[in-house]
Amino acid sequence: MNTKIKMIPCIVVFALAVFFVGDVFGSDPGVGIKAPGFTLASFEGKDVSLSDFKGRIVVLEWFNDECPFVRAHYDKATTMIDLSKKYKAKNVVWLAINSTNNATETKYKQFIKNHVLPYPILDDRSGVVGRAYGAKTTPHIFIVDGEGTIVYDGGIDDSPMGRKGAKGINYVDAALASLTGGESVVNPKTKPYGCNVKYKKAPGFNLKAFDGKGVKLSDFKGKVVVLEWFNDECPFVKYHYEKKATMLDLAKKYKEQKVVWLAINSTSHATDRQTIDFFQKHNFVHPVLDDRSGKVGRAYGAKTTPHIFIVDTKGNVVYNGGIDNSPMGKNAEGEVRVNYVDKALSEVLAGKTVSTPATKPYGCNVKYPKKLKPQR
Questions:
Q1: Who contacts 271 (Cβ-Cβ below 8 Å, separation ≥6)?
Q2: What does the radius of gyration of the chain's CA atoms come to, in whole angstroms?
Q3: What's the CA gap between 132 and 102, in Å, rounded?
Q4: DSSP secondary-structure letter at 162?
Q5: What residues in the chain have per-residue pLDDT under 70?
Q6: How many CA atoms lie within 13 A of 258 on its CB side?
Q7: Residue 332: its pLDDT value, please?
């Protein structure tokens, strides 16, 4: 039964591509459910948040430029571009999201340029947003209404590779026409078609802790693991250990629920003595792992210290971003502090989809070596 959807001044639509394997991501939030929030960088370097478009209709298109089903809609036809232009006049936002783990920035920038895309392609190579939405294929489309609710989930049309020609039904066009006309979506759920989203598992590693003990990610199979990128010289990190005890408190809180917390130091010039002195002084309850080569940090795409990743019991990255929305304890006027990691862990342990799977990490840039060195 369709629920009447109120006319909202602005609407945003999202098309997303998702992995089809059933155990790769969390439960599909589904039509009628609040859309998972996110902040992702575009392949052109601009940060884009779902919350930027509050009160508008947003289309999310899961995208992979190597998929022939996607290429058919960009090379043989201009389906997505035409729809985005058609509904832009009605304040609808179109965002493409790439959860393909092997996507490269150079290729995507060239694709955007060659096709003169009027909307950004967002970088979700960690797969956290795709999994949160349950995106299975490229293309896979989700439409979010002005109240932040998913009102459409499915394919762009019923004509894979354009086989039905003019007789095909464009489900997204029909849904947007209804929404912008103040009506409910007649077919809110259809079957997406295309290539499976190329998700990746959390990269494995075998690192030595600064106290000498070897640690493998595979040691914690079946457990939830938090990875915290760490640099004892960074003021943003020091704030969370010296002025606050953010990381230590969370590590202790969730240790009782069998959550593993690991700090990783990819700072190329870090010294054993300085790192050991820091974790001994602050009575760490978790190890600091030595990644001075930068290999693991680069594999995860760690950008700042701190930068947090949460790996679920199935080995999937389900959170990627900042510890909170309060750099150095400061929030914008009227903004409430949110500890994203605390919230995400409580949701994961409750068997829920992480409601905000991707946020913007803040802090000092990770001090990687200029040339990738072999693991020590």
A1: none
A2: 22
A3: 19
A4: G
A5: 1-28, 371-376
A6: 9
A7: 86
pLDDT in tens, 85-135: 999 999 999 999 999 988 888 888 899 999 999 999 999 999 999 999 999
The CATH fold of domain 206-365: Glutaredoxin (3.40.30)
8 Å CB contact between 139 and 15: yes
Scanning the structure block, which residue is given the tokens 């949160």? Answer: 132
Phi, psi of 235 (to 5 degrees): -60, -30
Token pair recorded at residue 154: 């499915």
206-365 has the same fold as 11-196: yes
Which of 289, 239, 274 shows the shortest CA–CA distance to 247? 239
Pull the structure tokens for residue 205. Answer: 């590693």
Q: Where are the beta strands (DSSP E) in the chain?
A: 11-15, 39-41, 47-49, 58-62, 92-98, 121-123, 137-138, 141-144, 150-154, 195-196, 206-208, 214-216, 225-229, 260-265, 288-290, 304-305, 308-311, 317-321, 364-365
> What type of residue sits at position 33?
I
Structural domain spans, the chain? 11-196, 206-365
Decide the pairing of beta strands 58-62 and 11-15. unpaired
pTM: 0.88
Q: What is the reported pLDDT for 370?
A: 85
Q: Which of 210, 370, 204 has the alpha carbon at shortest distance from 296?
A: 204
At position 97, the amino acid (one-letter code) is I
Backbone angles phi, psi at 173, to 5 degrees: -60, -45
Tell which residue, 359, 360, 302, 361, has the closest CA to residue 36: 359
Burial of 162 (0-12, 13-18, 19+ CB in 10 A): middle
Distance CA 320, CA 365 (A): 16
User: Do 91 and 10 form a contact (C-beta atoms < 8 A)?
Assistant: yes
Q: Please write the tens of the pLDDT for every residue from 183-192.
A: 999 999 999 9
Please state which architecture CATH assigns to domain 11-196: 3-Layer(aba) Sandwich (3.40)
The angle at the Cα of 366, spanning 284 to 222, to the nearest 5 degrees, equals: 55
Strands 206-208 and 195-196, sheet pairing: unpaired
